[in-house]
Amino acid sequence: MKMEDIPKEELVLSGHSACQGCPLTTAMRTVLKALGKRTIMAIPACCSAVIQGMYPNSGVNIPLLNVPFETTAAVCSGIEAGLATQGIDDVNVLGWAGDGGTYDIGIQALSGAAERGANFLYVCYNNEMYSNTGVQRSGATPKHAWTTTTWKGKEEERKDMPSIMVAHNIPYVATASISHPIDLYEKVTKAKSIKGTKYIEILAPCPPGWRFDYSKTIEVAKLAVQTRAWNLYEVENGKYRINATIRRPKPIEDYLKLQQRFKDAVKDTEKVREMQANVDARWQWLEKMVEITN
């Protein structure tokens, strides 16, 4: 597939209020191009709920519901059930939430929906913090990262949300990045054709929260993949597949140095060594999962 094969129609419209270099609009454009206009989206409290615009105007050209923080997956379950009751089977139901509304506040509704096998796609755009409310730590924040609530650096490792979703035995789980739009488009297209709960998590580097220049959003996202800080893979019916094989990864320090949130960590050789070891171990684990599930 080539970039020119992706539909030209834009369902994320001009005039929205996202920051310069905002990754979520890039991600949302690609996801909605794959799903098409017959899509209903539920969005909880997050940056996406702000940038879409004020009623009666909207920056998103599909039906959209703003829902309480913890209810995204529950609302999607209800929409899906309502459509099924009416015999409508050609409308995509999309839950769109940040990591705060997924890893932390919304995990209970998502877990319940996944256990029931509700038929919708849940997308987590992961900027690794609560960006909309002032850059507080979330369950997705990496160890040693600065936030306004971890100003000495976070002391805990982040959750492994994709693995948590795999443990629910849902048919499709995938990771993606705004730096790899074709990979993201193809994964959403595949998820669209699968019945049941689907989960896709997109790395979305946030310039003001991660403290890098607004022009470097794609560069930071690409470096995350090139250093193996963020691996692109999918799990279809329990079988793992790596989508971007990085045989000669760049050192993790290249990725960290672009982000002021790691400015103290990169001065500590032990911390950098620890993060590199964790990245290497994660890649080895992923290769092992591919080996044992195929």
Description:
The structure is a single chain. The chain is of the alpha/beta class and 294 residues long. The protein has a single domain, classed as Rossmann fold (3-Layer(aba) Sandwich). It contains eleven helices and eight strands. Strands 2-1-3-4-6-5-7-8 form an eight-stranded mixed sheet, sandwiched between helices. The radius of gyration is 18 Å and the shape is globular.
Q: How is the CATH topology named?
A: Rossmann fold
Tally of DSSP helical segments? 11
Through-space gap between termini: 25 Å
CATH class: Alpha Beta
Order of helical and strand elements: HEHEHEHHEHEHEHHEEHH
Averaged pLDDT, please?
A: 96
Structure summarized in a few sentences:
By secondary structure, this protein is of the alpha/beta class. The protein contains eleven helices and eight strands. The chain has an eight-stranded mixed β-sheet with strand order 2-1-3-4-6-5-7-8, with helices on both faces.
List the helices and strands and how they pair.
Blueprint: H1 23-35, E1 39-43, H2 47-51, E2 64-66, H3 72-85, E3 92-98, H4 100-104, H5 107-116, E4 120-126, H6 161-166, E5 172-177, H7 181-192, E6 197-203, H8 207-210, H9 217-226, E7 233-236, E8 239-242, H10 252-256, H11 269-293
Parallel strand pairs: 1-2, 1-3, 3-4, 4-6, 5-6
Antiparallel strand pairs: 5-7, 7-8
Helix pairs in contact: 1-7, 3-5
